[in-house]
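Chain A, query sequence.
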Amino acid sequence: MTNPAELDAWAAELAAALGLQDLPVDIALVLDLARDAAHSVARPAAPLTTFLVGYAAARRGGSPDDIREAAAVATRLALERG
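Chain A, predicted structure.
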């Protein structure tokens, strides 16, 4: 099992390296989204889905609400396939 503290540390380290240190990352949301895509579509859909959701959210403004809304669309589509 993955240690949640490791994921928090990795997210903070990566965000800082990408110049996104002020970005709140909802790790549970991202992991749930990846799980739903992997299980309902195909395993390779997990990283593709999370990337597209992040990109879509950024184009909408990148707020936490933008992220949640884009994730909700992707989750709905993935679960409809499963």
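The chain has one domain: 4-81. The chain has a mean pLDDT of 94.
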